């Protein structure tokens, strides 16, 4: 693709040099990779103006009035994709090592959260509301503690 862009711009890459991959990361819109492109030599006549190559940046995502809720949903979706794609991925997958580590960490946290929620739900089913709230608070899950307290109020 880079060779095609250089050919369209009337440029020739130096012999033996190619674009090199610097890094890749997964964003909510997909993979974003950064490349280093070698210097190019433009071909043309001496008096001809240089070819116009215009690179347009991506427009920023549209903002709405409910902006605080959107990043949470986007981050939750990104984490769910990361867990699904990279947590149990083999060595031949497209996941970077840092993505695999993060996916395993997120999967362990999700498993622990699900176990805590099961324990609190069990206590609530036995009508042990104070113990359920205390269990959630000891584990540090304020949202679950609020949910348990709201469930217990008549």
What's a quick, concise take on this entry?
The chain has 154 residues and is α+β, with helices and mostly antiparallel strands. It contains 5 helices and 4 strands.
- Any idea how many domains? 2
Number of strands: 4
Q: Strand-and-helix sequence, N→C?
A: HEEEEHHHH
Number of helices: 5
Morphology? elongated
Helix content: 40-55%
Provide the fold topology:
Layout: H1 2-8, E1 11-12, E2 20-27, E3 30-36, E4 41-42, H2 69-86, H3 97-125, H4 129-139, H5 142-152
Antiparallel strand pairs: 1-4, 2-3
Helix pairs in contact: 2-3, 3-4, 3-5, 4-5
Characterise the protein shown here.
This protein is α+β, with helices and mostly antiparallel strands and 154 residues long. The chain folds into two domains: 1-38, no CATH class; 65-154, no CATH class. It is built from five helices and four strands; from the N terminus they run αββββαααα. It has helices at residues 2-8, 69-86, 97-125, 129-139, 142-152; strands at 11-12, 20-27, 30-36, 41-42. The strands form two sheets. A two-stranded antiparallel ribbon has the order 1-4. It has a two-stranded antiparallel ribbon with strand order 2-3. α3 runs parallel beside α5 and α4 packs antiparallel against α5. The longest helix has 29 residues, at 97-125. The protein is elongated. It starts with a helix and ends with a helix. The mean pLDDT is 80.
